[in-house]
């Protein structure tokens, strides 16, 4: 899928302005589609006097959670794990945790994956816990936990939950989480630049910073530990775009092969737990959490899978349209830089430019065939033909005689030619289609929706005039 050069130039300016405005010392981005990385760019000083590029290494923080979820799912696929098992089956120290109510269930692995275990949200605390040992985590559990809700009843972004999942991976595989995730997910996909420790990287590793009033103060990098599953990975634009492309391909007609089945990858990108608006103030899209990924609902582009990453000194974000496979990844090396804002703007620019070209492939063949039959019906109405095209409810919902009259009046009102070719169309789902016919003083909107029958019959038929604004 081609992305116009002018769109890519606008995307590049979004990130260049952030460096110019002092948001971060460096900023790097990449746009990808189903075939790979389309374009990338970098601005600022990555630490050696050069601008970052697609192979410069940044900490990606909580984008790691998608790898953690994928690693768990490989164990489920192998029959070694049940997502509905309680966490106490794998982390005995959790037995000491007093649950919020007498009838509270012990959090299951599925609850931990979907951020619904009831724990309070914990970014400031957890972002400093990466190097914690397993013994230290056990001590936290035996000392007790606080709960904001009964497990399984609400959403709260929980790093602790994903740290527990990292322990589960370690217990089941008999290896440290970092080794298990690398072997199960990263290396099979060729994500060789994605590592859990800076000293394991072959590329230039950017140092994280925070503003100190006069410039940028460099921050030390934490090392792997009991909390690596929440955000321990380092990666590049090239690798993270590859990961996003792989996940998005599960929705294509030819999903990429990999360690995780297309069905499991699709499961990761489903809206499983609603994220309350209070969690994402200012959000313009309804948002939920899947398995290691947020899922946003966009009216025009459909579901958008995403995840941000924030650690002391770093900000990362990845997002893509599951429908189109178009995505953006971006990194910056400053605490609380919130590069997600820029990445969201960038993907919106790319998707808007391709909105018209991505609708047609989504229309089911049965819907396209029904469009042709409806077109002929509108030109030469015949009740017997209508019965063959539509489900019985269409005639019952509005008698054919009144429909014929309403269609004729709508066409006459704007001077529409029922035999003309459509001037525009859009589809919300494969079995839905609306299109517009030109008129001398407006457009005629025709809309159909198919019933869930293999015959491809129309259950909804709407014809409305849309006069031009005077």
Describe the structure in your own words:
The protein has 16 helices and 16 strands. With 470 residues, it is an alpha+beta fold. It is 34% helix and 20% strand. The strands form four sheets. It has an eight-stranded antiparallel beta sheet with strand order 2-1-12-11-10-9-8-7, with helices on both faces.
Q: What is the C-alpha radius of gyration, as a whole number of Å?
A: 26 Å
Helix content: 25-40%
How many H/I helices?
16
Please state the oligomeric state of the protein chains shown.
single chain
Mean pLDDT: 95
Strand order of the biggest β-sheet: 2-1-12-11-10-9-8-7
What is the 3D form?
A: globular
Biggest beta-sheet profile: 8 strands, antiparallel
By helix and strand content, what is the structural category? alpha+beta
DSSP strand count: 16
Low-confidence stretches: 356-360
Distance between the termini: 39 Å
Question: Strand percentage, roughly?
Answer: 15-25%
Summarize the SSE layout with pairings:
Elements: H1 5-20, E1 26-33, E2 36-44, E3 58-59, H2 64-77, H3 109-113, H4 123-126, H5 134-142, H6 159-173, H7 177-186, E4 209-211, E5 216-218, H8 228-231, E6 234-235, H9 237-248, H10 262-268, E7 273-274, E8 286-289, E9 294-298, E10 302-311, E11 314-321, E12 327-332, H11 340-353, H12 355-359, H13 365-379, H14 383-389, H15 392-397, H16 400-414, E13 424-426, E14 432-439, E15 442-450, E16 458-467
Write out key terms for the chains shown:
single chain, 470 residues, alpha+beta, eight-stranded antiparallel sheet, four-stranded antiparallel sheet, 16 helices, 34% helix, globular
């Amino acid at each position: 899928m081609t992305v116009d050069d002018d769109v890519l130039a606008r995307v590049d300016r979004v990130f260049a302005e952030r460096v110019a405005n002092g948001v971060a010392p460096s900023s790097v981005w990449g746009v990808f589609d189903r075939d790979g990385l389309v374009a990338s760019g970098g601005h600022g000083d990555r630490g050696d006097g050069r601008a970052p590029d697609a192979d410069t290494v940044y900490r990606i923080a909580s984008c790691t959670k998608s790898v953690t979820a994928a690693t768990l799912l490989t164990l489920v696929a192998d029959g070694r794990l049940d997502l509905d098992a309680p966490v106490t089956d794998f982390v005995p120290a959790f037995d000491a945790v007093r649950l919020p109510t007498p009838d509270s269930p012990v959090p299951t692995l599925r609850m931990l994956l979907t951020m619904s275990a009831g724990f309070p949200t914990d970014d400031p605390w957890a972002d400093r816990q990466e190097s914690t040992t397993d013994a230290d985590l056990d001590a936290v559990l035996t000392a007790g936990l606080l709960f904001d809700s009964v497990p399984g009843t609400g959403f709260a972004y929980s790093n602790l939950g994903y740290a527990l999942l990292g322990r589960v991976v370690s217990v089941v595989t008999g290896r440290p989480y970092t080794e298990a995730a690398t072997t199960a997910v990263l290396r099979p996909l060729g994500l060789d630049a994605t590592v859990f420790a800076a000293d394991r990287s072959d590329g230039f590793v950017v140092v994280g910073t925070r503003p100190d009033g006069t410039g940028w103060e460099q921050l030390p990098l934490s090392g792997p530990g009991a909390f690596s599953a929440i955000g321990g990975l380092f990666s590049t634009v090239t690798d993270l775009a590859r990961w996003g492309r792989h996940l998005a391909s599960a929705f294509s007609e030819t999903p990429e092969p990999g360690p995780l089945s297309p069905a499991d990858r699709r499961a990761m990108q489903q809206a499983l737990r609603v994220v309350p608006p209070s969690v994402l103030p200012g959000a313009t899209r309804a948002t939920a959490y899947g398995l290691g990924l947020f899922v946003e609902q966009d009216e025009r582009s459909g579901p958008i899978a995403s995840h941000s990453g924030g650690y002391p000194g770093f900000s990362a974000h990845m997002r893509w349209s599951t429908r189109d496979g178009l995505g953006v990844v971006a990194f910056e090396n400053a605490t609380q830089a919130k590069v997600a804002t820029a990445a969201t703007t960038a993907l919106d620019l790319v998707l808007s430019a391709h909105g018209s070209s991505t609708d047609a492939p989504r229309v089911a063949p049965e819907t396209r065939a029904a469009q042709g039959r409806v077109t002929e019906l509108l030109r030469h109405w015949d009740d017997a033909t209508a019965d063959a095209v539509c489900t019985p409810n269409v005639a019952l919902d509005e008698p054919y005689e009144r429909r014929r009259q309403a269609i004729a009046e709508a066409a006459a009102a704007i001077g529409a030619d029922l035999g003309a070719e459509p001037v525009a169309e859009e589809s919300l789902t494969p079995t839905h289609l609306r299109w517009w016919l030109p008129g001398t003083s407006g457009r005629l909107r025709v809309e159909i929706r198919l019933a869930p029958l293999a015959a491809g019959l129309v259950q909804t038929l709407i014809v409305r005039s849309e006069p031009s604004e005077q």
